[in-house]
Design a protein that fits this description.
Layout lengths: L7 H4 L10 E3 L6 E9 L5 E9 L9 H7 L36 H14 L3 H25 L29
Antiparallel strand pairs: 1-2, 2-3
Length: about 180
């Protein structure tokens, strides 16, 4: 008869005696293996194996910095221990004053140009810029209609006594 290998779960007594936690390594690849044993909610013995890669990081320490750390503390720091001197972030908002003004966007520039034109007495400039704006809006609507994203424009109701529909794009005659 062949004798089977005894497993760790078979050797446990019913007295909650678990093997101690073991740590192996780090090996040539920097892997450290930790083996823990514990019992779950059902009372079953569980083995947990954790593998961690250990990396050594070299930190450059300047001679001047090492010397400065050896100095005697002064001021309020002289009363504190080394553990008390911890840097803490302050939550107060500190407003900064802009030296140069922020650049205006294209829309803000158009608005200021329109304001300047309205304040000036030059009506030709105002009419020209308004015509440009209206033309651009009309072209945008036409493009949306061509793509099918905008419904056809509503036509005014026809008056009584007129003959047939008018051709599109022609202005209506003024009323007497």
């Amino acid at each position: 008869m062949m004798k089977s290998k005894i497993r760790w779960g078979d050797t446990l007594d019913d007295e909650d005696a678990l093997p101690p936690t073991t740590v192996k390594g780090p090996d040539s690849h920097g892997i450290k293996i930790t083996t823990e044993y514990f019992k779950n909610d059902k009372g079953e013995a569980i083995k947990k194996v954790t593998k961690v890669k250990v990396v050594n990081v070299e930190k450059k320490v300047y001679k001047v910095t090492a010397e400065r750390k050896q100095w005697k503390r002064f001021g309020l720091a002289a009363k504190e221990s080394a553990d008390d001197s911890v840097t803490v972030r302050h939550v107060e908002d500190i407003p900064f004053e802009r030296i140069r003004p922020a650049k205006a966007t294209a829309q803000e520039k158009k608005f200021t140009d329109m304001q300047a034109a309205l304040q000036s007495a030059d009506k030709q400039t105002i009419v020209g810029s308004l015509k440009d704006v209206l033309y651009k809006k009309r072209m945008e609507r036409e493009l949306l209609r061509a793509k099918g994203l905008l419904a056809e424009a509503e036509k005014p109701p026809e008056e009584e006594g007129t003959a047939g529909p008018k051709p599109a794009g022609l202005p209506s005659a003024p009323k007497p």
